[in-house]
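DM between two lab members

TW: hey, do you still have the Octanoyltransferase LipM entry open?
JB: yeah, one sec
JB: this one, 276 aa:
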Amino acid sequence: METWYFIDSKDQSPAYNMALDEKLMDWHREGIIPPVVRFYGWNPPTLSVGYFQHIEKEINMEAVKGHGLGFVRRPTGGRGVLHDDELTYSVIVSESHNAMPDTVTEAYRVISQGLLEGFRNLNLQAEFSIPRSKEEKDRLKRPRSAVCFDAPSWYEMIVEGRKVAGSAQTRQKGVILQHGSIIRSVDVDKLFDLFLYKSDRARERMQKGFHKKAAAINELTEAPVSMNDIKQAFRKGFEKGLNIHLKEFALEAGQKEQVKALMEKKYDSEAWNFKW
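TW: and the structure you got?
JB:
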């Protein structure tokens, strides 16, 4: 059984979270560390947007500020995510790893096996989302809204037909980064405040439909689940799903300085966050 590193970063700033994910990719590429599974949270709660999203066209920045949220652009694709009462995970592994398929969608399937096992550890019968019809596949190429949880993509998790985790992936210089959100609870009104719509009626229609398409863990369990229980469930889930052993890893002082420098240079900058 292969040993990977495990990091629980607790709640961190938006820029720190993205900078550490990127630096973990660098260190893994350089052979300094093995593959990594990382858990983290957000302080303050944050709206993250996908690498290709257009802020002026899709995001209500006044609402982001009004709700006291942080804001950051991810290095991965996908749509907007409100990171609040959730466990965020990231997986960093080489494309050349013998367990990783060549295609993005199949790599999602392999990595997301850890998510599947995590939900099962919470007694939730999760399954993979597999778009089958032409209409479903076309919808993935042209999403109707900028909200991540509006619809599941390939191999994302669904329970009772509703999306329960959203993930995004990038590949940079031979290394895969997949990260995503495991939602414990969600304030739907706050979430939909953060995006721009053609009309109030369009927002109302999308928000009403959201309840049928997405769900948080505490909507699906008989009793509320603690964040500690969720962390334990998904740590064991990744170990079983990826057939690995997770070993605790703490950053050295020099590595912390590298993360800080990248935060300041990139993820705290308007040039990065408001490009396009």
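TW: got it. The first helix runs from residue 14 to 29. The chain has a mean pLDDT of 91.
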